[in-house]
Amino acid sequence: MELYPVNLKLAGRRCAVIGGGAVAERKVKSLITAGAQVTVFSPVLTPGLSQLQENGRLAWVARVYQAGDLHNFFLVFCATNEPAANRQAAKDAQAAGALVNVADAPELSDFYVPAHIVRGDLLLTISTGGGSPALARRLREEIAARYGPEYGHYLALIAKLRPELKGRLATTKEREKFWRETIDLEALDLLKQGKFNEAEERIRHAACCTGPES
Ligand SMILES: C[C@@]1(CC(=O)O)C2=NC(=C\c3[nH]c(c(CCC(=O)O)c3CC(=O)O)Cc3[nH]c(c(CC(=O)O)c3CCC(=O)O)/C=C3\N/C(=C\2)[C@@H](CCC(=O)O)[C@]3(C)CC(=O)O)/[C@H]1CCC(=O)O
Ligand SMILES: NC(=O)c1ccc[n+]([C@@H]2O[C@H](COP(=O)([O-])OP(=O)(O)OC[C@H]3O[C@@H](n4cnc5c(N)ncnc54)[C@H](O)[C@@H]3O)[C@@H](O)[C@H]2O)c1
Predict the structure, then answer these.
(1) What residue's CA is closest to ligand 2, atom 39?
(2) Which of 15, 115, 186, 207 is most exposed by smallest CB count within 10 Å?
(3) Which ligand sits closest to the CA of 106?
(4) 158: number of Cβ within 10 Å
(5) Which ligand minimizes its atom distance to the CA of 99?
């Protein structure tokens, strides 16, 4: 079945992770990066998760999952190494209204976590529909090498200039035409060389010389 792509805002949202192993750690770290409020249910934590717990970045319920644990969570990740526990927690979480990810059972999951590359506000994601996480990882490595940090800087510049341009170009059509023509590889090369001011100048120049009359 085709998946529906969406990028979630998780700031302040309650998310639960059942299990404290390597898979749980990977999920927890990206949840924390997205600002989620994370609770981990597991008798044991990896050293990485323990560190996060000691630093107050997650809440830890230091025991196995129990029925009734999963009220008021937005997302629930079932990531223990016990298939039966994962299945039970998934069922309970769905009954409580959460969206569920089951680490060892894609067919029971409401969503999958994609491989991803972050460049500032630019987020590139890769999904194989659960078919091959190893392929997703390989593609992530290739795409990361192709789209470096300069794309994050470039996006930040463009995002800053967009409201200014909105005032200058009256219609959506004009703005669309301008931006399609202005996404320009030379400014990217300048950013790659660390020439931030020159790159900004270049984009500003294109912006200032454009108007309904030009
Ligand atoms: C992308 C990434 C995100 C993340 O987890 O952060 C992610 N898995 C990653 C890595 C990875 N996972 C596995 C391997 C070993 C090689 C292999 O099996 O291919 C590797 C590669 C490695 O580690 O080298 C094993 C594995 N994974 C799943 C199962 C269960 C099953 O298939 O039945 C098993 C078998 C366990 C077993 O055999 O016992 C299931 C899922 N893994 C997903 C996501 C979802 C589908 C995403 C998609 O659409 O592709 C889905 C469905 C659910 C979910 O977890 O959301 C992350 C890449 C991080 C990066 O970018 O480097
Ligand atoms: N989705 C993925 O990306 C992916 C990748 C690799 C493996 N897997 C699957 O994910 C599962 C977990 O992998 P792992 O490497 O993190 O395992 P792990 O053995 O390192 O960790 C399992 C954790 O679950 C905890 N646990 C066990 N029973 C529990 C219960 N009833 N309640 C709460 N916590 C409990 C353990 O204390 C431990 O912390 C495996 O079943 C594996 O097949 C998924």
Answers:
(1) 20
(2) 186
(3) 1
(4) 16
(5) 1
